[in-house]
Amino acid sequence: MNKIGMSRKDFIKNSAISFAGLALSPAAAACPSTKVAVDEKYAPSTSYTIKNVRLETGFEYDGKNVISTKTALFSIAIDDGKIKGIGPNDPGAHAMDAHGMLMLPAFKDMHIHLDKTFYGQKWQAVRPRSGGVKGMIALEQQTMPDLLKNSTFKAEKIIELLQSKGSAFARSHVNIEPTSKLQSLKNLQKAIENKKKVFGVELVAFPQHGVYYTDSIPYLKEAAKMDIDFIGGLDPYSIDGAIEKTIDFTVQLALDNNKGIDIHLHESGESGIKTVEYLIEKVNENPTLKGKTFLSHCFVLGKLERKKEEEIAEKLAGAQIGIISTIPFGGLVMPIPTLIKRGVNVMSGNDSIVDHWNTFGSGSMLQKANLAAQLYGYSSEFGLSRMLKLATAGPLPLDDKGVQQWPKVGDVANLVFLEASCSAEAVSRISNAKSLIYRGNVVY
Ligand SMILES: [Zn+2]
After folding, report:
1. How far, in Å, is the centroid of ligand 1 from the Cα of 264?
2. Model pLDDT for residues 389-426, shown as the tens digit of each residue
3. Model-wide pTM > 0.70
4. Least confident range of 37-41, 49-53, 113-117, 223-227
5. Could you tell me which CATH class the domain 8-105+408-442 is placed in?
6. How far is the CA of 297 from the centre of ligand 1 (A)?
7. Can you spell out the DSSP letters for 286-305?
8. Strand 96-97 relative to strand 102-105, pairing
9. Residues spanned by CATH 3.20.20.140 within the chain?
10. How far does residue 265's CA lie from ligand 1's centre (Å)?
């Protein structure tokens, strides 16, 4: 079934009827309380129950080593977009049937550019480029007007791709610069509105062409008053020529508008580390930014000597500044294990699925967790299960001691159902997502 080629309405309709994963038993189909979303009339207050849901319940040990993950089948009641009950399984119940699939928190892509993708149109590899990021800015100044002609459509297509891989949420950067002004944001907001029942998005107002390098300030100020969540940034030193001036502006705009911060930092030399240290200083001076300030990529962390790496990781954790990494591999290895060990909030994203920057995003957050597990040698049952946090942006069914910590009654029902026996297998095999629920709405 080609979900991507369908309209949204057809997609939801077909999904609900044919329903690859969760299935309505014949008896349940006649029962109005177990109806799933089939059209626009669907109300979020709908309640239903899912039986034969596999949840992780603990680890099995051989001495000190985790050798497998224990699971059991449960019955999950959903009401008003939340988990209302977690009870013993009743295979004979009139309910939707998860057929023993593993239920996990729906995945989250925490760094993507939904506004300027080629996805949904003709395949296009990246072209030879010159002039670094500034060369790409010059290219975008030529190509953005064309890209924006159908960017709402393409954003919807890419959201459908993310959904098909088990994600129900994304943090999207959106270009705010003098070429597209606020148009990229407005086009993306239309896509978000069209998908709001089945997918969640938070937005970063992203000065892709620099804050000062091209005068983006008036547009950033306007965007900050619109429905966005974070003020973005891009390599303050190499693009704007000033670390303090650009970071000061970004911090002030975030404070004035009660937003978070998420800055693209590719600079890997001295300017990169100075930017990190200056941002840490500013966040410590303005504690309301703690927990809502992030550095995306932050490649400089992969270039530090061991001692400095540990020191910076500790400072980032202290200032509650998160790192969002695409898990790059090749010449640069990000110190993700050190960051996690020191308590830094590490999250991941596809960044580009297919655009003029990169074409290697698959849309799968489970693949990112798998890449990290391979890259850092997390091959044990325990190690694999821990890497799931890169797909879920945090929550894990079991804590490090094997105590069940998810799901809990009252949690928002953002759920993915996989053909896997446990998290470790899902990460290792990049298991298929068979069903997805967003705020209680059955997506497929
Ligand atoms: Zn990016």
Report:
1. 6
2. 999 999 999 999 999 999 999 999 999 999 999 999 99
3. yes
4. 37-41
5. mainly beta
6. 8
7. SGGGTTSEEEEE-GGGGGS-
8. unpaired
9. 108-386
10. 9
